[in-house]
Design goal:
two-stranded antiparallel ribbon
Length: 205
Amino acid sequence: MTVRRASKADLMLAFIPIIFSLHQALEGLVWLTHAEGAGRCAGYSYATIAFCLWPLYVPIAAWRSETDSRLRMFMLCFLLLGAILVAAAAWVLFAGLTIDFSTNHIRYLPTKRYPLVFDYVYAACVTGPLLLHRNIYLRIFGCLIVVFFAASILVFNPARYSVWCFFAAVCSIVLYLFVASRRGLGRRRSAPMPNEVPAIDPQKI
């Protein structure tokens, strides 16, 4: 429904809840198979989407939706940072991934260790463009992701990636309000002003 109502500029943002749905379905398969067989492939796919898709997808989606040239320039900076992050994440994932269930949560543990600052740079890449956007609903979405990032670090740290992605998926319902607000704005812009004088066709005079 959200995708059907979205404009071309907002289409990538409207697809985010769908991608999150597929993302959570992959983790459901990981749970059901205990990360064995097809479940292991699902686990790698889940991690690839989390670490290699979102840092590029979100800045591009926000950049396409925003019209302010100055804000778009800042969003491109986040995109560049995200590209560097994705290259590093792909290198780490290529070295191997352990999927652990020992804490009754799913932990995605790369074989190659990486500094904790990675998590904070990642959070900046996926929330910064949303917080820069002029639409209030995208800013709310970005704020919610920041809040749940902090909660995942402080409360669910061993399984922070899994928990954070789950909360972000739930919060993506806000994007329905974003698309609805954009459609309403478009209608107001296209509607004639109350005091507007109708155009007169010279041929009818």
